[in-house]
TrEMBL record:
Residues 9-129 form the DUF2147 domain. This is DUF2147 domain-containing protein. It holds the Pfam family DUF2147. InterPro entries: DUF2147. It comes from Novimethylophilus kurashikiensis. Gene3D superfamilies: 2.40.128.520.
Length: 131
């Protein structure tokens, strides 16, 4: 495996429609050995207004600024490349999903899967390491 043996660091998240970098997500490990991620930067797309607040979020996250918004939490390392048992927030619809993450062998990409009941029927995205 490459120099980065875990999911900590800065990751590029891509827009589903344009395929362009949408945000930079910083994943860190907490004292309890779980992982969480927050939006560190929203990447402006020419001609497309970007939301500055999570207007679709509910509860205390409603209208929370996008910068610093925690979108990933509770992830636990299952083995060398797999992380499970966490949750992920989709700021586009304000919904929270169960989450699993698979780190590539070279440590450069993540397959992030959000799902309701079963991971094999969830939606996956590929994030690329930014550092």
């Amino acid at each position: 495996m490459g120099a980065q043996a875990d999911i900590t660091g800065l990751w590029q998240e891509y827009d589903d429609d344009t395929g362009k970098v949408d945000a930079l997500i910083r994943i860190s490990r907490k004292a309890d050995n779980t992982y969480e991620g927050a939006i560190e930067k929203v990447v402006e797309q020419p001609g497309i207004p970007s939301e500055t607040e999570c207007s679709h979020c509910t509860g205390e996250l409603h209208n929370h600024p996008m910068l610093g918004l925690r979108i990933l939490w509770g992830m636990k390392r299952h083995d060398k490349l797999h992380y499970e048992d966490g949750e992920i927030l989709d700021p586009d619809d304000g919904k929270i999903y169960h989450c699993s993450i698979r780190l590539s062998e070279d440590g450069k990409t993540l397959q992030v899967t959000g799902f309701i009941n079963f991971s094999w029927i969830g939606q996956s995205e590929i994030w690329r390491r930014s550092e």
